[in-house]
Amino acid sequence: MNSYPVIIQGGMGVGVSNWRLAQTVSRLGQLGVVSGTALDQILVRRLQDGDPGGHVRRGLDAFPFPAMGERIWQAYFISGGKTKQSPYRLPPPHAKDNPRELSELCIAGNFVEVFLAREGHRNPVGINYLEKIQTALLPGIYGAMLAGVDYVLMGAGIPLKIPGVLDQFVEHQSAEYALHVTGSLEGDETTTYFNPSDFVEGALAPLTRPRFLPIVSSNTLASTMLKKANGRVDGLVIEMRTAGGHNAPPRGKLLLSEAGEPVYGERDAIDIGKLCELGVPFWLAGGYGRPEKLQEALAKGATGVQVGTAFEFAAESGLREDYKQALLAKAIAGEAVVFTDPLASPTGFPFKVARLDGTGSEPEAYAARPRICDLGFLREAYRTSEGGIGYRCPAEPLSLYLAKGGRAEDTLGRKCICNALLANVGLPQVRNGQRVENGIVTAGDDLNSISQFLAHGNLHYTAAEVISNLLKGTAQP
Questions:
Q1: What is the pLDDT of residue 347?
Q2: Residue 465 lies in a domain
Q3: For a pLDDT cut of 90, what percent of the chain falls above it?
Q4: At residue 197, does pLDDT exceed 90?
């Protein structure tokens, strides 16, 4: 870990940046990154599918808490896998005070994913989290550190307190994290706590502190992270608005283009020269998945680039094959369309959606889906009239949302991103034995440029080909 990678593979979606992709990228000398979102759900669904390949079992066999691992195995593993008509059994949704079962699933799920990504090599591996999913952060990070994760990346928020959490977990000490609760008052208890000693099974040696790279979208946030974080910040990922997934909203009043997309202006531009003055390594993200863009980033003083979309459609990614092939075909024809949807995500952040027939990107297909919120990763915590904490989602049934004090106008255009992202990786929920959740694929604005990795009309390329292509003309040690 004495040197930094030139290429960081983006930690995309739920299970798209899986352990296979991250392991491949890391073996090739760059930074492979697993997505840390919903790894508890990924774990239990893999087990209910019969643990194809035995990978979860192998990870749990290496887990330092064997009794915990066995509880999880006994609770969720189905030999041979569930039937296609059967629904997945769901753990409870995350809340400020998670039940022990859910914390255990977070610890184990993060451990297994990082363990598998690091298996068989000694190169660094990272994990990517969304700061907005606050209730899952502490047990998840601890599980990843138990597996020896080398980098923690975090976006979709301002993670000023994460460096301190990493420092605490090195010695298996307790950590806390303040939750954002809409309408909270001074004196309200809005802090979540996690104490490793409540879960450990025997004495453990100190852990290695991973490097921390917050993902920010402005010079102001970059400077704030370095000045106000409660511990060491090792570098920055600077994500432009062309990147896939959630984007930072435009600064100032929201204006929409004729197509209905957010309009960004000069206030949203990044001054790369000022980034160089901060004195820490930084990587540029969003539209940098081409060799000339990598060269441009290096010439401007960046340490390298973070690339998502190009890896998302590589053979090793977790994106389901039918979606992958359909969108690759569109990219070859130059017909792939990515819409920056200002409404789809329950978070209120703009969310990039790749248009694809039969998925939730199409209004008719999504309109056929009943409003259901049974995962709750993107729920909003709010202060109830009794002074407690409740949870609501603008994609849940309208009557429920209104009963919780939500506004009807906030539900317009909202979609269940949680269920859709699990469907994207072949783990869709089945309802009433027949209706299967559809995916909603996210990608960066440069989706059509992935055709550069395809030769002679092929609809298949590997992560190794992405890396080789990006490094053309770049001197490597």
A1: 86
A2: yes
A3: 81
A4: yes
> What dihedral angle (degrees, nearest 10) is formed by the CA atoms of 123, 303, 244, 270?
160
Instruction: Give me the DSSP letters along 163-188.
Output: HHHHHHHHTT--EEEEPP-BT--TT-
Residue 326 lies in a domain: no
DSSP string, 439-450: P-----TTGGGG
The total of other beta-carbon atoms located within 10 Å of residue 94's CB is: 25
From residue 243, give the alpha-carbon distance in Å to each of 283, 306, 340, 350: 13, 10, 10, 11
Domain containing residue 94: CATH number: 3.20.20
Structural domain count, the chain: 1
Segment 248-307, tens digit of pLDDT: 888 888 888 888 888 888 888 889 999 999 999 999 998 899 999 999 999 999 999 999
Amino acid at 208: T
Give just the sign of the alpha carbon dihedral 358, 346, 113, 327. Answer: positive
Per the domain annotation, does 227 fall within a domain? yes
Note whether residue 153 is domain-resident: yes
Helix residue spans in 389-448 (DSSP H): 398-403, 417-424
Are 241 and 270 within 8 A, CB to CB?
no
